[in-house]
């Protein structure tokens, strides 16, 4: 049985150099200085409509705020997002691999995957 997600699903944006700040009692991730121009889930570019606002702090973790692109409407009425791609990648050339999958982001409250990508 799946516990219903109480909110609209919005995924965190990727941060430049994967540098992230987390604030005490704040559910949002803040990028150090800047968000990436695009957010990936495996081989898939996540649509802007599925993303949270870009939130950044300066290099010392201060002056944190929303910057750049705002949040999209998100995905309502879903328990998770499943992205599918069909691309020939480096992983496809290893052994007998014909498909692979991984989760991209987890829900903060229950630590369960909310975004998954598979490449066929």
Automatic annotation (TrEMBL):
Entries under Gene3D superfamilies matching the protein: 3.10.170.20
MF annotations from Gene Ontology: metal ion binding; metalloendopeptidase activity
Keywords: Hydrolase, Metal-binding, Metalloprotease, Protease, Zinc
Key word Metal-binding present: yes
Cofactor(s) named in the record: Zn(2+)
InterPro entries named in the record: Peptidase_M8 (IPR001577)
Keyword Hydrolase: yes
Similarity comment text for this entry: Belongs to the peptidase M8 family.
Protein name: Leishmanolysin-like peptidase
Organism: Timema californicum
